[in-house]
Specification:
heterodimer; A: mainly alpha; 75% helix; B: mainly alpha
Chain lengths: 329, 327
């Protein structure tokens, strides 16, 4: 019966058998191993990826779980992921303690502005390094590398005095200038790395498009703005996004230069000490460490929520942009 | 005869070339130079903004901090007082400050074993994420998530929770990979002598897997970019030759990504060293908060020199094994 059911199938099987018989022993072994690997590997891959994804997502899930629970649930051993009392009070309290909307406004103002200015200044500098020859270029580029290597902590203190008595009389501490000025002149957070990226990127672009512009009588600046920048749009976006992320996450630099101006990151860093004062009007109140976690996790959730939203919508540019931008060269 | 001829021809050719170079019209040469000079000037214009910023916000502070490290710094009303102390600050950092040296040693050791693990792990993940399978976009999105979180204070809270409070956090989680399990597996396989040492190593790795996974976002991104640059022709050729995936990895993938291994190594080392959360950094910060600027600067400089040395050594060693396509 089975032989007559599908002659087409039979013939294919036979064909296959014939083909396998025609192969040498090594070839057959290779095919067999390959077939086995093709079957096992996807399962193995799934297990690995799933496990590691869990490690990455674990704190985030925990964050969400904590932020929406009552703080008494923290001491309840039966509560693990799903809370007994759903509440958004903790989120509200944390928002109050962090002065959230005000802080968010300051942060965004600082963040987007600085990132934008920094990307522009770094792109101009990177272009200068990529396309022009001048005396001392190697030395200057060495300084760029130095900027990547020197930890901020080494220069933070002299930089503080620099801003405290800027040009002899201005006090820039606690003003936005302390962040904007370095960003404007290509010395913001991780500027060295960005200059390097832009240099690599512009070096990777064909020289011909530029030469064409020169022949048409374009000056270097106009060539840069009208010819190079449109070509570098995706690189600009990627670097801009990373710049936003780095400024958003920075708490070290902001804590050095700001005393009263608070960004989301510095707020979160100081959240521990602010909780008592903000929620119970008592700065010396002793809160249970375990219960504190609720607010801490809520604070975390609040401060990464904007980043996550941005990431969800612009994920493509984070991951694909870097492949096309200079780092590959 | 033939040999003689070639010998004769060669010098004349080079002579002629030299003559040509000498007799090139000087006018044209000057205009070429001036064009180059003009272009150089433009280049300087392009970087001038950065140059000013660097002098004000980088070089001067750097110089100052170097000066502080050789001086005793006293803060007084409206300024600082510097008195020359020579190498006393450095002497203090190396010989007197036990905490600093301990932290330094711990950080160096941690970097030493964590960096290779991060590199291997991220290369492995990049290779997986480069394959075609369902849900790849989601997997990529998840694995790059640390890129946007790991540099910030949120990570500080997260990893603090994972390590210390152990509430519902880290401990329960890491028991999933507990030493017993590994040891039992080893015993089951009939390996007895190894199990203690191996178990220790494996459990350390397992306990730190959180830190490794969370710190390799950018590295995965870079490796993935490198993998996508492997020409399809290389893949096809390997397939036709009947290479197994293992051979393919070592003979095709590895050479192509090797320059990125160096880049990633350097990036990882810088990242771990300059992380504000690392203990040496904290120690320097503490010193600063005690207004001991001289000592703090000296420590920072020692630390910085070690970073430079480490990167120099890595570059020197790894450069020998790198395969550059263009050469």
């Amino acid at each position: 019966m089975t032989e007559t059911t599908s002659p087409e199938k039979m013939s294919r099987k036979q064909q296959k058998k014939l083909r396998v018989q025609g192969l040498s022993r090594e070839e057959r072994g290779y095919l067999r191993r390959k077939a086995a690997a093709d079957k096992v590997w996807p399962l193995f891959r799934f297990v690995i990826l799933f496990g590691l994804s869990f490690i990455i997502l674990y704190p985030l899930i925990y964050m969400v779980s904590c932020a929406f629970r009552d703080r008494s649930d923290m001491s309840d051993p039966t509560v693990m992921w799903i809370t007994r009392h759903h509440t958004i009070d903790v989120i509200k309290e944390t928002m109050k303690a962090m002065n959230f909307w005000e802080t968010l406004r300051t942060t965004l103002l600082l963040n987007i502005g600085c990132a934008l200015v920094q990307v522009i200044s770094c792109a101009i500098t990177g272009y200068g390094f990529a396309r022009f020859d001048f005396r001392g270029k190697k030395l200057l580029f060495g300084i760029v590398i130095m900027m990547i290597l020197v930890p901020m902590q080494v220069i933070a203190l002299p930089l503080y005095t620099q801003f405290r008595f800027f040009l002899g009389r201005f006090n820039l501490i606690d003003t936005m200038w302390a962040m904007y000025l370095p960003a404007m002149t290509g010395n913001g957070i991780r500027s060295g790395l960005m200059i390097l990226i832009f240099r690599q990127f512009f070096r990777g672009l064909p020289k011909e498009i530029e030469d064409a512009a020169y022949i048409d009588g374009c000056g270097p600046l106009r060539t840069f703005i009208q010819v190079m920048v449109p070509n570098a749009a995706s690189a600009f976006l990627t670097v801009f996004l990373f710049s936003v992320v780095w400024y958003w996450n920075d708490y070290y630099v902001s804590m050095t230069f700001f005393v009263h101006t608070e960004t989301v990151a510095t707020m979160l860093t100081n959240l521990d000490s602010r909780l008592g004062a903000a929620l119970f009007n008592n700065a010396t109140i002793q809160l249970d460490e375990r219960e504190k976690i609720v607010w801490k996790e809520a604070g975390c959730l609040l401060s990464i929520a904007p980043l996550i939203i941005m990431y969800v919508f612009l994920q493509k540019y984070f991951t694909e942009g870097i492949e096309r931008s200079g780092l590959v060269a | 005869m033939d040999e003689n001829k070639t010998e004769q021809i060669e010098p004349t050719a080079s002579e002629a070339a030299e003559k040509l170079r000498k007799t090139r019209p000087s006018g044209r040469r000057r205009s070429l130079l001036s064009y180059q000079r003009r272009k150089g000037l433009y280049g300087l214009c392009f970087i001038s903004l950065w140059l000013i910023g660097t002098i004000v916000f980088f070089l001067i502070p750097l110089g100052k901090s170097l000066a502080y490290s050789f001086c005793e710094v006293k803060i007084k009303q409206g300024g600082k007082d510097l008195t020359w102390k020579g190498l006393a600050n450095y002497d203090y950092a190396v010989n007197a400050d036990k905490k600093f040296m301990d932290n330094l040693e711990a950080t160096l050791l941690e970097t030493l074993w964590k960096t290779p693990l991060i590199i291997i792990f991220s290369l492995f993940i990049a290779v997986i994420l480069n394959q075609k399978f369902r849900g790849r976009a989601l997997a990529r999105a998840i694995f790059f998530l640390p890129v946007i979180i790991a540099t910030g204070p949120v990570f500080k809270v997260i990893s603090g929770d994972m390590n210390s409070t152990g509430n519902i956090g880290g401990e329960q989680f890491s028991t999933m990979f507990s030493t017993d399990l590994v040891g039992q597996l080893m015993q089951f396989l009939g390996i007895y002598g190894l199990s203690d040492k191996m178990g220790l190593i494996i459990s350390t790795v397992a306990d730190n897997i959180f830190g490794i996974v969370w710190n390799s976002g950018i590295q995965i991104l870079l490796f993935l970019a490198a993998l996508q640059n492997i020409p399809p022709s290389a893949r096809e050729a390997a397939q036709i030759e009947g290479a197994t995936s293992w051979e393919f990895f070592w003979k095709i993938t590895f050479p192509y990504v090797s320059p990125f291994i160096l880049a990633n190594l350097i990036f990882t080392v810088i990242d771990t060293f300059t992380n504000p959360m690392n203990t040496v950094m904290k120690r320097i910060l503490d010193k600063k908060n005690e207004w001991a600027f001289g000592e703090a600067s000296a420590m920072a400089w020692i630390y910085f020199l070690i970073i430079i040395a480490a990167i120099g050594i890595i570059t020197f060693i790894v450069n020998k094994f790198i395969y550059y396509e263009v050469e």
